[in-house]
Specification:
The complex is a heterotrimer of chains A (84), B (80) and C (76). Chain A is mainly alpha-helical. Chain A has helices spanning 3-20, 24-45, 49-77. Chain A contains 3 helices and no strands. Chain B has one domain (4-76). Chain B has helices spanning 4-21, 28-34, 36-47, 52-76. The radius of gyration of chain B is 15 Å and the shape is flat. The N and C termini of chain B lie far apart (47 Å). The longest helix of chain C is centred in the C-terminal third of the chain and has 26 residues, at 50-75. By secondary structure, chain C is mainly alpha-helical. Chain C has one domain. In chain C, helix 1 (3-22) runs antiparallel to helix 2 and helix 2 (26-46) runs antiparallel to helix 3. In chain C, 59% of the residues are buried. The chains are: A mainly alpha (84), B mainly alpha (80), C mainly alpha (76). Chains B and C meet through helix 1, helix 2, helix 3 and helix 4 of B and helix 1, helix 2 and helix 3 of C.
Chain lengths: 84, 80, 76
C-alpha cells in the first residue's frame, strides 16, 4: 500500500517548508498541513477501532493549539491586547 | 538490536537538556518552553518499557507542573 | 511501521526538537513544539497505546495554552 508513504512525504515536506519560512504568521498554515497529514497517518498505522478516536482526538487537539497560537499572535500584533 | 524509539528518545532528551541548560534568550519563558522538549524525549524512552499507567501519569503530571510554573511566574512579577 | 515511516517521523521529531532549541522567538518555539508532538505521536500509536495517544493529544494543547497565557502577559 502506497498511502502511508504519500502521507509521510506530505508531512516531511510541510515540516521542511515550515522550518524554512522566516515569518511566524506564514508558518501556521504549514503546521496545519503537517497535523492533517499526521492525523491521516495515525489511522493507517494500526487496525483497531480505537485508532479512529485517537486520530480524531489528535485532529481536534492540534487544530485547537494552532488556532490558539494564531489568535494570540494576531492579537499581540494588532497592538493593545484585549485583556493585558 | 536496540530499538529505534529508544535511540530517538535519547537524542531528543540530550538536545532538550542542553537547550534548557544553555538557553539563548535568558528569560523564564524561553526556559519554560525548552523544558517541555526533554519531557517528550523521556516519554519516548518510557514507551520502550511498556507500562501504560506510568505513561498516563507522566503526561498528566507534566501538564500540571507546567500549570504550576505558569501560575508562579504570574504571581512573582507580572513582566517576567 | 517499517523503516521508511520510522525514519520519516523520527526526522520530523528531531527537526522539531532542534528548531525549538534554536529559535529565539516565543511563538516560533511553540510552533516547533507542535512539530515535535506531531513527530512523537505515530510512535505512541504504533506500539498499541491508543489510550495514551488519546490522553496525550488532548493534554498537549492545554499545556500550550497555559504557556500562551504567560507569553501574552510578557509581550504586551
Amino acid at each position: 500500500m502506497i498511502a502511508p508513504y504519500v502521507v509521510a512525504a506530505v508531512a516531511v515536506f510541510a515540516v521542511a517548508r515550515a522550518l524554512i519560512e522566516r515569518n511566524t504568521g506564514r508558518k501556521l498554515p504549514y503546521i496545519n498541513v503537517m497535523s492533517f497529514a499526521v492525523a491521516g497517518a495515525l489511522v493507517m498505522l494500526l487496525d483497531h477501532p480505537l485508532s479512529l478516536i485517537a486520530a480524531a482526538a489528535y485532529f481536534v487537539g492540534s487544530t485547537l493549539e494552532s488556532n490558539a497560537i494564531a489568535s494570540t499572535y494576531a492579537g499581540e500584533k494588532d497592538g493593545g491586547g484585549g485583556r493585558g | 538490536m536496540i530499538e529505534p524509539t529508544l535511540i530517538l528518545g535519547l537524542l531528543i532528551l540530550v538536545i532538550g537538556v542542553l537547550s534548557v541548560a544553555f538557553v539563548r534568550p535568558k528569560t523564564y519563558i524561553a526556559r519554560l518552553i525548552n523544558l517541555e522538549i526533554p519531557a517528550w524525549g523521556l516519554l519516548l524512552i518510557m514507551l520502550t518499557y511498556g507500562e501504560a499507567l506510568a505513561l498516563l501519569t507522566f503526561i498528566a503530571v507534566t501538564a500540571i507542573g507546567t500549570f504550576v510554573i505558569v501560575r508562579l511566574m504570574e504571581w512573582r512579577d507580572a513582566s517576567c | 511501521m517499517n523503516l521508511i515511516l520510522q525514519a520519516a517521523f523520527g526526522l520530523i521529531a528531531l527537526a522539531g526538537a532542534v528548531s525549538a532549541a534554536l529559535i529565539r522567538d516565543s511563538y516560533g518555539k511553540l510552533i516547533s513544539l507542535g512539530i515535535l508532538v506531531g513527530g512523537v505521536m505515530p510512535f505512541i500509536v504504533d506500539r498499541g497505546y491508543l489510550d495514551v495517544a488519546i490522553a496525550v493529544s488532548l493534554i498537549a494543547p492545554i499545556a500550550t495554552i497555559f504557556v500562551l497565557m504567560v507569553v501574552r502577559r510578557a509581550e504586551v
